Amino acid sequence: MDEMNIVSSFMTKTLSKVIAKIIRKKLGINVDLQIREVKIRVTDGKAHAHIDADADLSKESLMAILKQTDLN
What we know:
The chain is α+β, with helices and mostly antiparallel strands.
């Protein structure tokens, strides 16, 4: 079993900025993302990821995401 834990302030802030930039580029939505912790465990060829994060975005942005995923 392999594990990776990302909990340091530097790494979580960097990861938050990178993912927020990807969301903005791919979906055209501005989101304030704050990742607190990432845990990834690989067992028997399967990966399990746990992400503790908060995201702030406008209601219009949320509705756009739901519309793109047909959840609205």
